[in-house]
Amino acid sequence: MSKKIIYADDNKPSLMYVGLLLKRLGFKVMPADNGLEVLRLIKLTGADVVMLDVHMPQMDGFSALRHIKENKLTSHIPVIMLSADASRETRETCRTLGCYDYLLKPIKVDLLHNALQNCFFSHKGTNRKQLRAIFNKKVTVIYQGTHYELFTESLSEGGIYLRKENPFPIGETLDVTVPLSHGETLHLKGTIIYIKGLLGDFLTLPPGMAVQFNEMTAEDSLQLKNHLETIIAGDILESQEEKVIER
Fold this sequence. Notes:
Elements: E1 4-8, H1 12-24, E2 28-32, H2 35-45, E3 49-53, H3 61-70, E4 79-83, H4 88-97, E5 101-104, H5 109-121, E6 132-134, E7 138-143, E8 146-156, E9 159-163, E10 173-179, E11 185-196, E12 208-214, H6 218-237
Parallel strand pairs: 1-2, 1-3, 3-4, 4-5
Antiparallel strand pairs: 6-8, 7-8, 7-10, 8-9, 9-12, 10-11, 11-12
Helix pairs in contact: 1-6, 2-3
């Protein structure tokens, strides 16, 4: 089940862009215009995470954060503050009131992803999920000296899911050429860690195999991360026009 996030911002474009980004990252988003609406939504529906803009009318982010953390029924909910205000005073006020993290606008997809994953996993001592995107492209695969052209289902920082009616066996190694932007490609080695045949729920996941990338260099990792961010949020990030406020 998708995690539920309440996100409040009186700036309509920001509310739309960040809300869309959260949905692309796999979360259920409930938008709000101000802190009062956030408190009502929490009471009515609950939330796994609350995200607040600092400066809002009626009830600003400071006040909403204070109410959430002072209420025993909601104090456990992680709160991430988002703002174009980069001043130390504002950051320290939010930290003192109990926010989990403070992110500057325009939002960077990797920082948002990391903050949310830390909210969900850091207290459990488990690994964070890697950045992942829907990736319906054709890739070149070399298996035992034979070249294959296979369509993909998804791409992450750690691997790729390849469609194939008759998957190769688990534990086998492959060479995968991933197409990037501007005609560039990324050549990676991987090991098959999961296979799915024709039987079962093919509507949820088509037949194929999950490949975990191996022996990635720092440059490979950076290229892949940048490409994933472009897939997920390239159009959104280009539209964010708020400027950071320095004080």
